[in-house]
Specification:
- It is built from 9 helices and 8 strands.
- A hairpin with a 5-residue loop joins strand 5 and strand 6.
- It has a single domain, classed as Rossmann fold.
- By secondary structure, it is α/β, with parallel strands linked by helices.
- The protein binds adenosine-5'-diphosphate (2 copies) and zinc ion.
- One adenosine-5'-diphosphate binds next to helix 1, helix 2 and helix 3.
């Protein structure tokens, strides 16, 4: 099963992608997580990516596409995968399609988690991310049982720099300009499925598994 998650920043893509990956035993591939791991490890890629991420801008396609295509050729992707945060531009989607076609493969679903902008800013200010393992919490909707520390690895939780309200506004503008056109792109391929992302996380998950198992 090859799935792409679409949706605004903070729509709940990562939350759902992790649950889907666990349920179907396929890897969860998040470009945001890959970039943050590179920043943490001080790599050249991390240094370049950080300049864009801090401003709420997309990392250029040249730094993003090959990274993902390489990742998809690893053994663990044999039974499929769930892509979270990629593609984010039409050229990224076209590059992905080209790489898949070359291997005689195709995507099964593009799942669009739909949440209006008005709900996004509030949601993002409550998001807390683990500095150790990247797990994500929400101070109201999904608090860590260990308070300001991660339930999984015990490291401190932080508000991501790019989750501050000024940067979230910028990211939403970038989303509407560069990423939202993918909804039409995948609708044209007849693989688009939209779910109401304003529901409780478990209800969103039930809606998605309903689609995948239909
Ligand atoms: P969110 O889950 O809140 O949407 P991500 O963790 O997916 O955020 O991404 C954080 C940042 O990493 C983005 O704002 C962008 O700068 C960069 N990024 C992640 N994925 C991509 C991509 N496919 N193309 C370009 N930039 C990306
Ligand atoms: P994305 O990957 O799309 O940027 P996340 O999965 O990180 O989004 O979710 C953004 C924030 O909203 C996180 O703090 C997460 O715990 C919370 N969240 C996710 N899904 C829901 C939901 N259905 N209802 C309320 N809060 C949610
Ligand atoms: Zn952790």
């Amino acid at each position: 099963m090859k799935i792409v998650m679409l949706g605004a920043p903070g729509a709940g893509k990562g939350t759902q992608a992790k649950m889907i990956a666990a349920k179907y035993s396929i890897p969860h591939i998040s470009t945001g997580d890959i970039f943050r791991a590179n920043i943490k490890n001080g790599t050249e890629l991390g240094k370049k990516a950080k300049e864009y991420m801090d401003q709420g801008l997309l990392v250029p396609d040249e730094l993003t596409v090959d990274l993902v295509i390489d990742r998809l050729s690893r053994d663990d992707c044999g039974r499929g995968y769930i892509l979270d945060g990629f593609p984010r531009t039409i050229p990224q989607a076209e590059a992905l399609d080209a790489a898949l076609t070359k291997r005689g493969e195709k995507l099964d679903y593009a799942v669009n988690v739909d949440v209006p902008d008005a709900s996004i800013v509030a949601r993002m200010s409550g998001r807390r991310a683990c500095t150790g393992c990247g797990a994500t919490y929400h101070i109201e909707h999904n608090p860590s049982k260990k308070g300001e520390f991660c339930e999984v690895c015990g490291e401190p939780l932080v508000l991501r720099d790019d989750d501050k309200p000024e940067t979230v506004q910028k990211r939403l503008t970038v989303y509407h300009d560069q990423t939202q056109p993918l909804i039409e792109y995948y609708s044209g391929q007849k693989i688009l499925k939209t779910v109401d992302g304003t529901q409780d996380m478990n209800d969103v998950f039930a809606a998605i598994t309903g689609i995948l198992e239909a």
